[in-house]
Amino acid sequence: MDRTDRASRLIAAPPATVYGALLDRVALEAWLPPDGMRGRIERWDPRPGGGFRMILSYLDATGAPGKTSDATDVVDIEIVDLAPPERVVQRAVFESDDPAFAGTMTMTWHLAPAPDGTLVTVTATDVPPGIDPAAHEAGIASSLANLASYVEAGG
Predict the structure, then answer these.
(1) Which residues fall in a coiled-coil region (predicted)?
(2) What is the pTM for the complete model shown?
(3) What is the residue-averaged pLDDT of the chain?
């Protein structure tokens, strides 16, 4: 797997605020699920070598079967590196019986100071082939929009 998907968004908040929302359990449950999903974190250990397990549930699974079941995506996230307030690197493994979703995807969240806030760029490398590229990029963009709304509203 050598596919890379990427999305960026300018968020009207300082890098430290955005960084904090990347490592806060309540915040992640609020903003990380893309539109049409809700999320729940089962395990939480926000340090390098730690991570979390998120259950993403489709609000309407019609026409969008999940990777783990018809209505869910379960993903185990390992935190690989933390460089406050500029970078979070994670490894994501989807729980799935479908080999098209097998493998470890690396997600790098890069935060760069900008005149009006923080430019957040998410780069996903080694994306499993079963993940539709357009849907994945739209999902990342949706999560970034949710992140912007969350931090711009004061969390």
Answers:
(1) none
(2) 0.92
(3) 93
